[in-house]
Write a structure and sequence with these properties.
Layout: E1 8-11, E2 18-21, E3 29-32, E4 36-42, E5 45-49, E6 63-67, H1 72-87, E7 97-103, H2 108-119, E8 136-142, H3 149-156, E9 163-165, E10 181-183, H4 188-201, E11 206-212, H5 215-229, E12 234-241, H6 250-265, E13 271-275, H7 281-284, H8 290-293, E14 304-307, E15 331-335, H9 343-348, H10 361-369, H11 404-425, E16 432-435, E17 438-441, H12 449-454, E18 457-459, E19 465-467, E20 478-485, E21 491-499, E22 509-511, E23 539-543, E24 552-556, E25 561-562, E26 572-573, E27 578-580, E28 587-589, E29 591-593, H13 600-625, H14 630-633, H15 637-653, H16 663-697, H17 710-734, E30 738-742, E31 749-755, H18 759-782, H19 793-816, H20 820-851, H21 858-865
Parallel strand pairs: 4-7, 4-8, 8-9, 9-10, 11-12, 11-13, 13-14, 14-15, 29-31
Antiparallel strand pairs: 1-2, 3-7, 5-6, 15-20, 16-17, 18-19, 20-21, 21-22, 23-24, 25-26, 27-28, 30-31
Helix pairs in contact: 1-11, 2-3, 13-15, 13-20, 15-16, 15-20, 16-17, 16-18, 17-18, 18-19, 19-20
Amino acid sequence: MLLIFFPHIVCKHHTIKCRIRYPHPPFHQYHQPGELVIGVIASQTLIISSSATLRGEPQPVFEELTVVTKNYQHILALAFAVKEINENPQILPNATLGFHIYESYFNAKWAYYATIQVTSTPERFIPNYKCDSQSNLLTVITGLNFQTYLHVATLLDLYKIPQLIYGPSPVMNDKTPGLPFYQMVPNEILQYVGIRSLLLHFRWMWIGVLTRDNETGERFVQATLPLFSQSGICFAFIEKVPKTNVVSDVGGLLQRGARIYDQIFGSQANVILVYGESYFMTNLLWFPYLPEILNVTSRIQGKVWIFTAQMEFSSFTFQRTWDIDLFHGALSFSLHSRDPPGFHQYLQSISPSRIAGDGFILDFWQQAFGCVFPNTGMDKEDFCIGKENLESLPWSAFEMSMTGHSYCMYNAAHAIAHAFHTMSSSRLTQGTTTDRGKPKLQNQFLWQFHPFLRSVSFNNSAGDEVSFDHTGQLVARFDISNWIISPNQSVHKIKIGMMDPQVPLDQALIINKDSVIWHHWFNQIPPLSLCNDHCYPGYSKKMKEGEPSCCYDCALCPEGKISNQEDMNDCFKCTDNYYPNEARDLCIPRNISFLSYEEPLGISLAFSALSLSVITGLVLQTFMKHHNTPIVKANNQNLTYTLLISLLLCFLSALLFIGQPEKWTCLLRQTAFGIVFSVAVSCVLAKTIMVVLAFTATKPGSRMRKWVGTRLATSIVLSCSLIQAGICISWLATSPPFPDTDYHSVTEEIILQCNEGSITMFYSVLSYMGFLSIVSFIITFLARKLPDSFNEAKFITFSMLVFGSVWLSFVPTHMSTKGKHMVTVEVFSILSSSAGLLGCIFFPKCYIIVLKPELNKREQLIRRNN
């Protein structure tokens, strides 16, 4: 790249004679001689001018210099660091360090001019020429005007001069590869992640953003918007404040400020994130006064202001007495800083008469103390005596403690000195020669300085380690401070946390939220900043169409699901061992449920089963005791005993259904009951058939006489029972029942049950018993009018009606009940159907045997038959 500068050529009209006018010398510069020189392009002064016009007679352009007085400490920090280095024989024993400081006026044009000045011979402005061989420019330190970083770096790259930046510089993140620059601030990503972590820590999801209307503000929005959106943080608004240094534009700027004021204080967002240059605070100080100046509709209210590390609490001279209570409780990210030993005393010794060659101090002194020096020609009552005390200045005008930017400037000077000391001591240095013991740096070998500067590592006098990472950025932390505004409008910064760069980013935020002092508006309660109220536990977020993700409705969790935190995106099911409460915000442990012997229902059913078993045993005993009586003989003794024994086993099999299901009980309960009950129904069927055959065989000439006997009854019982046994064996062989846990049937309970394995086989067993019952019912119904003295058809018919009614009602009831009540229905069906057979068939006979023995005679049976 070839860069050529032409001087200003002025020619008179109608003449060929021209004279050359060189550019105006810098208004502000500060030189301290030394064999090694640090160039500095500072940012302290703004040029406020009137707008030029091309209409009518030319009018002079009014210009006024406005000093950001707080930034003067940056220059003093560099001077103090150079003083420390020159007084320390361990750092540069054979050389003195000096500096050339020029002002950039927060302007790209003046920054270019300052860059040419710093690379040229002092007092002799000849671009691209250096006539002074006594001073060697090592590096250039640039400051807070981040719009010119990249341009200055491109210019310095021509000479391979390293550039150190002492303010945050996001623009340089997209630099051209190879540009020699180093950042004396932590990585900007650390600050972005820190802001996000801070917002999430206080659950501020709906925020406003205020930036400068320039490329850097746009970059900030582009970097943070997707980062914050990933965490559910939304921007309620993004307002951009235009920058102007022209007096005639102030009216339009105030109008724009009024619109921004309405947006900020009319929004539900209680948190405002502010990103701008170091003096951006001077724009915000107008907010409390805009309602008086312009027609502003919104009423001012407390907000939580979050300021980025670029900004400092600074004010112009005419703003010193303005009300700043609006920013009470603000949170700010700031560059980490400490006071080096002796710095406070150094500031106390500063006065215009004691600093030679400082072209910044007079304007600073006049605007900081609101006075003028007698020899300036300005008409003002208050004259500066030069002995004013810096400690008397308000915090917004000047700080006696080293600020973050000043600390970066201080560390930059020490890093340069340590790096050059290392290079001078290295045997590999080929670009450094000596002249009578003094260092002489040749420009063509200046590029060798970069590796030593990049790898520099030391502890400064304040005790902090100074080193760069692989990207050329300082390894340091951001501090988080809380701004406290006193009733007298003084400001105090209280450190409440930091961003630690040595840990993963998601764990880097360290904050003591209990020490935060909030704005009076919030009554010392951490404020909310949401688009709408929280969705409380039991509800989930329901997105609004066309709205940001932070704006949503709240929907009650569906049945079976809960939400136990605020603002959950979706409800979830409890684990199997828990169930939702009525409010659907908590999972309650489920009770384990099964038909137990320890509960009243289980005790009642067990007692009923045992009682019926005892009754059946007594009936069997009665029949066996009176086995020679006609009424017992007339009804086939063997079938009677078999039926009573099977009914006894049916009652006892009901006990298998009570208690916690085990593997063996699950295998036996259905199969044992199915086989035993089939035997009982088979006996009833056999008795019915035998009654019919017995009546038919008594008729003269009947051929059915040969079928009457015990062999037929035994064959019926065995064949019918073996078919059921075969079904049960197939069931056990293919898909046997097993203990299981049901989590779904009853919400509040975990049901311990027997899984039938194959529902088809289960209902096959029941269907077969039903088939036997239907056949028996049909036969007994046809034989119901036979003489009572020869058969019990009407009793069997009634018992089959009871049996059928019970099991027909069992099927729908069993399918509609859940949990242990399903087992209860089955036990009740077993007991009631078995009791129906016992009562309908045997109780009338027991009545005759026990209470009417006179009727239990052959003569009585024959007489009744006739």
